[in-house]
Amino acid sequence: xxxxxxxxxxxxxxxxxxxxxxxxxxxxxxxxxxxxxxxxxxxxxxxxxxxxxxxxxxxxxxxxxxxxxxxxxxxxxxxxxxxxxxxxxxxxxxxxxxxxxxxxxxxxxxxxxxxxxxxxxxxxxxxxxxxxxxxxxxxxxxxxxxxxxxxxxxxxxxxxxxxxxxxxxxxxxxxxxxxxxxxxxxxxxxxxxxxxxxxxxxxxxxxxxxxxxxxxxxxxxxxxxxxxxxxxxxxxxxxxxxxxxxxxxxxxxxxxxxxxxxxxxxxxxxxxxxxxxxxxxxxxxxxxxxxxxxxxxxxxxxxxxxxxxxxxxxxxxxxxxxxxxxxxxxxxxxxxxxxxxxxxxxxxxxxxxxxxxxxxxxxxxxxxxxxxxxxxxxxxxxxxxxxxxxxxxxxxxxxxxxxxxxxxxxxxxxxxxxxxxxxxxxxxxxxxxx
Length: 434
Fold this sequence. Notes:
Blueprint lengths: L2 H10 L15 H12 L1 E8 L6 H8 L17 E11 L2 E11 L12 H18 L16 E6 L8 H10 L5 E5 L7 H17 L12 H11 L4 E2 L6 E4 L2 E8 L2 E4 L8 H11 L1 H23 L14 H108 L2 H4 L1
Helix pairs in contact: 8-9
Subcellular location: Cell projection; Cytoplasm, Cytoskeleton
GO molecular function, one term: GTP binding
Family: Belongs to the TRAFAC class TrmE-Era-EngA-EngB-Septin-like GTPase superfamily. Septin GTPase family.
């Protein structure tokens, strides 16, 4: 049979045919279970809430262990996300659990952008998975999936209404992660106040368009219990690792002077409901919703930004190769355009620089001419002064010579008269007695 005929028959639909005997593909579910158990499972929880609402204690209580992580410091100026991964084993099933906490959430005076690091962290996990998917050699079966499967949003037990920070953050997260709101430390308010608080929270979430995670109703096996649990949202929970013997068994409790609150007593809080819905009934649905809804939305938006579409403007199937060639040509065109713009900009800057250098050269020449003229004027003045001084020196020398000559003549005349008198005295001794 030709390949075209096979394709045509496949397009027309499948026929149901009976089997004459046992074949064995009914063991596929068992094979799938065995393969899944051998590979193990992963589950990632994001805990969002203000400091002091018992996020770490609730995680310890949910998984019945003590997670030893580094103590968080609240001295950072913004919100910091701290991720810790643990390997858990129950019976023959392995679980790689990652708990991400929001350190410093709600501690700032300006809480306007407190949600932004959380959104960026979730998008970063989606981007890492997308990059792994787009590789030529993919290793998704060994890839540690770090996408957030469930976001437990811890609400402070004020008993009044949701804070604006809570509404804004949940609104930003509802399209990226499965948001499950819970009232933390619910033993801080009375039963009547807690009932009114739940109604108020549900009303505010609906009026503000916040889409929280709804437990699935399409599976008949869990539809009834999930429907009942959806009506109990948000869960009012208490966390504690302290144990006390009540009756014949040890139970987790919180002890107060006025009495004891049992964590696993459904009359005291909704901890058991949360554990059932989150871990024992809907863990796989949370994983599936993360992949098929939230990740697919991120992937579609990201690929559309890159120019990839399922159909062209004429609603015809779009070829990935054609899209690649179109994007490549578009990129090359933009590259050439930018190259031309840069070349023109370079030429323009060179011209501007040449003009600046010519102007500077002109100014230097003018300055040189000014300095040269000034130098010549100064030189002329100095020469005139020198000539004047030389004239004065010559006149002084002439006067000096004349004065010396007169003095010499005067000295000679005085000496002649003295000799004449001496001679006369010698010849006439009487002149001496007188």
